[in-house]
Each structure stands twice: as structure tokens, then as C-alpha cells.
Write a structure and sequence with these properties.
This protein is an alpha+beta fold. It has eight helices and nine strands. It folds into three domains: 27-98, no CATH class; 108-170; 186-225, no CATH class. The chain starts with 5 loop residues before the first strand and ends in a 7-residue tail after the last strand.
């Protein structure tokens, strides 16, 4: 469908109410899943390194500690002799699922592409609600009057709209954009000749963000105030 989404339709049974499964794969997410798993396996391998020389009781205690973490539990196995090993079969099975999700529908009128796009839109709606409740602090609402509550919700919605516009225009997450733009500061310098308020230098990445958003860069100097002239008698 696009550079970051591949789809394959699988139909089970026949008839008007047949189940249609749309196997979707995001190559970018697949690469990310593989990287995360590789880092996780490296940590697990380091945790069990040297355990072969430990006593059976110590190995059992280590296995219990590692199994307390679900991320380790699914890749850890005990051999018949009680040695701790990485379950390569479980690793291979999970690798087959990298970057994949599986929408299901019984609607015969929707194409595989429409089902996949609709599911991704649902994920975007859920992410929007999470952003409203966390990043934008929609709740708790401390207002009592209905008009003020509506205004609060409307402002949060407008902020979310600006976040999505910025993400769409730049292709970056809001967290990354905010982190980069937070490096832009306004300094206040004063001396015998007066006072000046001057921003820091625009980085190449900040300039690219402003250009993608069609927003003018902030002026270099915000205020130039000469020192007052002393009165003479």
C-alpha cells in the first residue's frame, strides 16, 4: 500500500459471514522490533553468563528472578540438566511477528487496503486520547462553569490539532520536535550602553522544522534599549 505498510488478505470459510483476516506488516516497525529484541537478548545473555558454574540452588534462584520480568520470561529456558539458556525457538517464533498486526472483519464490501487504513486510523484515535490525557493534561478539570469547561476542552483539542499538523508536516514525533525547539532560548544582556534581548543561533535542524511548518524564524533581536542618559545640571 505504501512504503511503510504491506498487506495480505486471508479468508477463512465461505459464505456471507466469512471471516477475513488482513495481515499487515510495517517494515519500519519490524526493524524496530528486531532491534529491541536484540538488545533484550543481549541483556539476558549477560544475566545468565557464568551461571553454569553456579550451584543448582543459585541457578534456580536466578531463574526465578529473571522470570519475574515478562520480557525475559518468554526467552528463558531450563535444560534437562538445569542450565539456563536462551530459547532460540521462541526467539525465531517472535521474529516472524515483527512489525505485524492482524485486523479482522466480516464486511465483504471493504477492500484489504481499506481495512488496514481503518485500523491504523483507530490506532491514531487512541493515541490522540492518550496525548490529550497526558501531554496536554485534559484532566483533571478544575472549572465548575460549563462555559469554562468547554473552553478548556476546546483549547486542548486545538493544541492536539497543532501537534498533529506539526508531526505531519515534519515527519517527526511531537516529543522530538519539542526537544529540539526547547534548545532555542532568549537571552537578556545588559551593560553600560543599555540592554538587549537576543535569541540563540538557529540550528540546521531547527531551521528545517520552521521551513517544513512554513513558520518564519523568530527575529534575532527582540529588544534594544539604550541606557538612559544621565541628567546634567
Amino acid at each position: 500500500m505504501a512504503d511503510n505498510l504491506e498487506v495480505k488478505e486471508v479468508v477463512l470459510d465461505e459464505g456471507t459471514m466469512r471471516d477475513r483476516f488482513i495481515i499487515c506488516r510495517n517494515p519500519d516497525e519490524a526493524a524496530r522490533d528486531a532491534l529491541v529484541r536484540e538488545q533484550l537478548l543481549g541483556q539476558l545473555d549477560g544475566a545468565i553468563a557464568g551461571s553454569d558454574d553456579a550451584s543448582p540452588e543459585a541457578r534456580e534462584e536466578l531463574a526465578c528472578r529473571l522470570r519475574e520480568r515478562p520480557a525475559y520470561r518468554r526467552f528463558l529456558r531450563l535444560t534437562e540438566t538445569g542450565l539456563l539458556r536462551i530459547d532460540r525457538a521462541a526467539v525465531a517464533a517472535e521474529a516472524r511477528l515483527d512489525g505485524k498486526f492482524l485486523p479482522r472483519t466480516s464486511d465483504p464490501t471493504l477492500s484489504a487496503a481499506e481495512v488496514a487504513v481503518g485500523y491504523k486510523q483507530l490506532l491514531e484515535v487512541e493515541r490522540a486520547w492518550r496525548d490529550m490525557k497526558t501531554t496536554l493534561d485534559l484532566r483533571p478539570v478544575y472549572h465548575r462553569k460549563a462555559a469554562r469547561i468547554r473552553a478548556h476542552v476546546l483549547l486542548c483539542w486545538l493544541a492536539l490539532l497543532l501537534v498533529r499538523i506539526a508531526e505531519t508536516a515534519t515527519g517527526e514525533s511531537w516529543r522530538a520536535l519539542r526537544s529540539e525547539l526547547d534548545k532555542l532560548h532568549l537571552g537578556r544582556f545588559s551593560g553600560p550602553s543599555g540592554e538587549v534581548r537576543q535569541r540563540t543561533e538557529i540550528t540546521a535542524r531547527q531551521a528545517a522544522i520552521f521551513k517544513a511548518l512554513a513558520v518564519a524564524e523568530p527575529p534575532r533581536f527582540f529588544e534594544l534599549a539604550p541606557a538612559p542618559v544621565a541628567a546634567t545640571t
